[in-house]
Amino acid sequence: MFDFPTIIRIPLRDGIDALMTWLLDHLGAFFDAIGWGILQVMRLFELFFVGLPWFVVVALAFLGGWKLVGKLSSGIGFALMLLLIGCFGYWKLAMQTMSLVSGAVLFSLLIGVPVGIAMAQSGRAEKILLPILDGMQTMPSFVYLIPALMFFGMGKVPAIIATIIYAVPPVIRLTNVGIRTVDPEAVEAAKAFGATQREVLMDVQLPLARESIMVGVNQTTMMALAMVVIGSMIGAKGLGMEVLLSINRIEVGRGFEAGISIVFLAIVMDRLTHSIAKKR
Fold first, then answer.
1. b/e 151-166 (16+ beta carbons within 10 angstroms → b)
2. Residues of the chain with pLDDT under 70
3. pLDDT tens across 187-234, in order?
């Protein structure tokens, strides 16, 4: 009597399973092509980061902290954090994590900025996309691993796909907000001088919304870095794999070293991207 009546159950799971099966049967080659393209881009990023000498990366972090943040102490702190990662023995894994995050951020920007522009220029698109973005940000991140595994198998590609889904909403939202908050008088002035809609967007709205967009890039980067441990569960290499192994083997010291290395990377990337946004 007090149990919920099963007769009115909505078979949502059955419909989703049927849709996934149909997509795999009819669009398998399409997903294979997407996976191949993403994998090639990821290999380029990994070759770049892993191939860079460690002292070059440390020097770039020092210069970035000094010139972008504007404090010599920040540059020294960034350099020391990266040196500590190397001293823990995790330099190569840290560079693999950097390549994973960089690839995810690149694809997130390629998707997020145009979608954010479309939202800003269409109230109907905003009404449709806002609930979707809410769902993407509140859905447990582990859920994204299931369709990624089904379409792309184990490895870096599904980890990148899951990271993109998890990390792309901030740059979409902040691109939309940045363009919508541009001074209407600046837009009207540009139109009064005969500027087309495209010229208004490229020469007025996007430059004035740049700070908001860069904040979105910063948030997307941080969310992508937060996914590295979860991505390691489906075959992505890097520091996340070390955290996962330490959990499986209950090695507290190993987990702490890998975890604090991720924290150091997050601090360096957050401060640098935030400083770029602030200067812009």
1. bbeebbbbbbbbbbbb
2. 1, 277-280
3. 888 888 777 888 888 888 888 888 888 888 888 888 888 887 777 777
196: left (phi over 0), alpha (psi -120 to 50) or beta: beta
The conformation of residue 249, written as its DSSP 8-state character, comes to H
Smallest CA-to-CA distance from 45 within 101, 128, 91, 120 is with 101
Q: How far apart are CA 78 and CA 35, in angstroms?
A: 34
Provide the angle, in degrees to the nearest 10, between the axes of the packed helices 239-249 and 91-121: 120
Distance CA 50, CA 39 (A): 16
Asked if residue 117 lies in contact with residue 156, where contact means CB atoms within 8 angstroms, the answer is no
How far is Cα of residue 66 from the mean position of the Cα atoms in its chain? Answer: 26
- Residue 215's alpha-carbon distances to 111, 149, 201, in angstroms, are 16, 31, 19
Residue 272 has φ and ψ, to the nearest 5°, of -70, -50
Delineate the domains of the chain, giving CATH numbers in brackets: 12-51+88-279 (1.10.3720.10)
Residue with tokens 């996962």: 244
